[in-house]
Amino acid sequence: MSTALSDSVRTEPAHRAAFSLPEVCIVIAIIGLLVAATLVQWRESTVIALKAAETLEHTRSTRELIHRLSEDTRNSQRLEIYAAFDDREERLRDGQLGNYLVLHEIDLDGVIQRTIGYYLLPAIDGTGWMLHRHDSAAGGTPGVLPHDSTAGSHPVVTRAVSLPESDLLFRCVRDRAVNIRGEFGTSGPVKLGRTEFVNCTLATRS
């Protein structure tokens, strides 16, 4: 009897687990959906991170602009504003606006020791303006403004995207301070929504 039982056990067919074709297709589809969802989430996270980095870069650039302008204005004793870098026939007075700011540092004897200028020029690509800065400490004679033929040859500080007052940046305030209003970004290509609005008044030591 034991022999017959063992024979019957050995001759029973083995049951092996296997997936049918529809089951395999379903599993592949589910895996594909999971991978796609992961890729979409990764892409969205990357875009958010890049936007945050761009925003921080624009904010940093704007703060650096205000910090540099503040220092230059605070260290100067005389301020001049003209219509433009190539239009200096008339020095602007209280309430008037222009695109060329000149700052002079003067010693106790009344001698100009340093001259710094900020001026706007239209961007080459036609979108916005580029803010340039010249400094007699880096070359030039204090008190003598660069020739108007040198427009655009000085370092770019930042990019002005929008100027709310007739495309003019600098407003003269009582001949001793300057008000600056505009929307700024980095010196690279304009990216909408990645700018900082500035509205501040800076006074000289006079």
Can you describe this structure?
The chain has 206 residues and is an alpha+beta fold. 31% of the residues lie in helices and 29% in strands. It has two helices and nine strands; from the N terminus they run H-H-E-E-E-E-E-E-E-E-E. Strands 1, 2, 3, 4, 5, 6, 7, 8 and 9 form a nine-stranded antiparallel sheet that branches.
Q: Helices and strands in order, then pairings?
A:
Elements: H1 2-11, H2 21-74, E1 78-82, E2 97-98, E3 100-106, E4 112-122, E5 129-135, E6 156-162, E7 170-173, E8 177-185, E9 196-203
Antiparallel strand pairs: 1-3, 2-7, 3-4, 4-5, 5-6, 6-8, 7-8, 8-9
Give the tally of β-strands. 9
> Which regions are unreliable across 5 or more consecutive residues at pLDDT < 50?
189-193
**Helix/strand-derived class?**
alpha+beta
Described by the principal axes of the CA atoms, the overall outline is rod-shaped
How far apart the termini lie comes to 121 Å
Portion of residues within helices: 25-40%
The averaged pLDDT comes out at 83
Tell me the Rg in angstroms: 34 Å
